[in-house]
Specification:
There is one protein chain. Helix content is 47%, strand content 18%. It is α+β, with helices and mostly antiparallel strands. α1 packs antiparallel against α2 (44-61), α1 packs parallel to α3 and α2 runs parallel beside α4 (84-98). The radius of gyration is 25 Å and the shape is globular.
Length: 568
């Protein structure tokens, strides 16, 4: 088990974070696969891996060898990089772990035991309605075992091993705590992620060797949605501010508000977030030199990056012309500085604005047609990070911003982002795209803010939603036996039907939905893998069978889900 250790120093903690991030990345697909429902978009492992990678990169940048400083760096990195509910909860675990270690160069078993207890308590407090049988349970088992073991054990290696064993026991017991886990025959995915992190950290602790963050620059890759026919290339003449300028400012007393105020007049898409010691700056400007000069007065500048967006557009245009000549549609990456979606005119500040998260060209067009200011690319399998949500909120030229997460795994990250920005932000609880459209449809800027939020929340709750996708494994859930590659229909995340034929399965799902809810309007949004003619034929068949509701058909363009259904 290696040499005995009576204290944990910063250099070894750094190695533990690196090892944990590496192992979690290696196991992320296995963790994704543990999703209770056998849908192809299980992303718990990916979200946790991306979040811990952000923490590891922040630790790598930290020049201090103080345990307290490095734990704080991990907490900050994980918060800004948090993706999905599991990622946000992980960031809260790291934040709680760091709090008792402030100002400590190193720590022994008693201090580490207290840090684990605070980690668990912080994560539980962050969740409005904590549920046992989840990653919270596994973290609590670890913390309770750490507290008990600290009464007798002084060797950190042996103590951590006892903590890891307790976490593994807690993970095994999650299957019996939630009926859905028991029926699917799996343990909780987030809990598996916590155990993986503890195991990776333990491996580094046993070796006791300082390590570097290796092989992680492309450690986690998220499949991009294939480019649609409209590549979204901006005309050169429309780029008012050419240079996307990004950097990190590090100092002792960075005046975040004053820095943001001084940079505001130099361009648009301004983002200044962080604290008195570290701030991230992003701005589109024609005067990057002035930006650097101002930031340099506030502290040391790191990771300076300046991109000429006009040149990037010229290159993208040439690719587009070549593609049109060859009859192809190349996958053009998002232009630097435009990664968060399209924004309204930054020169005109208004009272209210909206950010919506959506995946698919059709959905983007739908939300823009409803007056959404910024459509942030993301959703299932591509949960945007807290930092990306912050940037999207900052880009809306309004004093108050409403956020439509449109995915239950984005709500938590959106709420964290709302706490960081200076604007007044309201997050509408839209668990799906269908709910987001209903909320956006009742948006009325003439209403009082509180009244508007209540109205949009009510519109979201009024929708009964359904989804049709395919199974990625054999399983039984909700009493339904499912074979791999079967089509499955879900009502707001719960499997209702399964079958071998897409049209038949979709019809059965809609029959089930209509048997429970009388609807005036039924909207059908077809995905990327469904051709328009097939969707039209299905719509005609549904109209013939159910003539009473009004039927609407839209191109959503979403990946993985053949159809999304909304009953209103």
């Amino acid at each position: 088990m290696g040499l005995e250790r009576d204290c944990l120093e910063g250099s070894l903690f750094r190695s533990m974070i690196f090892e944990a991030a590496t192992l979690l990345n290696e196991k992320r697909e296995e963790i994704d696969f543990l999703n209770v429902y056998p849908v192809p978009d299980g992303d718990t492992g990916t979200n946790m891996a991306l979040t811990l990678l952000a923490a590891a990169k922040e630790v790598e940048k930290c020049s201090s060898d103080s345990l307290g400083d490095l734990a704080a760096a991990a907490a900050k990195g994980s918060l800004m990089g948090a993706r999905g509910n599991s990622g946000v909860i992980l960031s809260q675990l790291l934040r709680g772990f760091a709090q008792p270690l402030q100002d400590r160069e190193k720590a022994g078993v008693p201090e580490l035991a207290k840090a684990l207890q605070e980690a668990s308590a912080t994560a539980y407090k962050a969740v409005m309605r904590p549920v046992e049988g989840t990653m919270l349970t596994v973290a609590r088992y670890a913390a309770e075992a750490g507290k008990q073991a600290a009464r007798k054990e002084t060797d950190i290696v042996k103590w951590w091993h006892l903590v890891l064993e307790a976490a593994e026991r807690g993970l095994a017991e999650t299957q019996g705590m939630l009926p859905a886990l028991a029926e699917a025959g799996v343990v909780d995915a987030g809990g598996q992620g916590v155990v993986t992190i503890l195991r990776g950290a333990y491996s580094a602790l046993v070796r006791g060797e300082a390590s570097v963050l290796t092989g992680m620059s492309s450690a986690v890759e998220i499949d991009e949605v294939p480019a649609d026919n409209n590549l979204g290339i901006t005309e050169l003449e429309s780029i008012e501010f050419r240079y996307c300028t990004e950097l990190i400012v590090r100092g002792n007393e960075i005046p975040i508000g004053a820095l943001r105020e001084r940079l505001a007049g130099l361009g648009d898409s301004l983002l200044v977030v962080g604290d008195a010691e570290t701030a991230k700056v992003h701005v589109h400007t024609n005067h990057p030199g002035q930006v650097l000069e101002i930031c340099g007065e506030c502290g040391e500048m790191l990771e300076i990056k300046i991109d000429n967006m006009a040149e990037q557009n010229r290159q993208a245009s040439r690719l587009n012309q070549l593609a049109e000549t060859n009859g192809k549609n190349p996958s053009v990456p998002a232009l630097q500085g435009e990664e968060s979606g399209e924004a309204a005119d930054p020169e005109v500040e208004k009272e209210l604005g909206i950010v919506a998260v959506a995946l698919g060209s059709g959905w983007k067009a739908i939300f823009e047609g409803l007056g959404v200011d910024v459509v942030l690319n993301g959703g299932q399998t591509m949960n945007p990070s807290t930092e990306e949500l912050i940037e999207a909120i900052e880009r809306v030229p309004a004093r108050r911003v409403i956020v439509l997460p449109n995915n239950k795994n984005v709500v938590f990250a959106a709420e964290q982002a709302a706490k960081v920005v200076d604007k007044e932000v309201a997050v509408i609880h839209t668990p799906g795209l269908q709910h987001g459209v209903a909320a956006a449809a009742v948006y009325d800027e003439d209403l009082e803010f509180a009244e508007l939020i209540e109205k949009m929340e009510a519109a979201s709750r009024s929708v009964v939603s359904g989804e049709v996708t395919y199974a990625v494994r054999d399983t039984t859930t909700n009493g339904i036996k499912i074979n791999e590659r079967d089509y499955i229909g879900l009502q707001q995340g719960k499997v209702m039907v399964a079958g071998k034929d897409l049209v038949t399965t979709t019809k059965e799902l809609i029959r089930s939905l209509l048997s429970k809810r009388k609807a005036e309007i039924v909207s059908l949004f077809y995905g990327r893998d469904v051709i328009h003619a097939a969707a039209r034929e299905l719509l005609q068949q549904l109209r013939a069978e159910f003539p009473e509701p009004e039927w609407e058909l839209y191109e959503g363009g979403q990946p993985l889900y053949y159809y999304l259904v909304a009953l209103e």
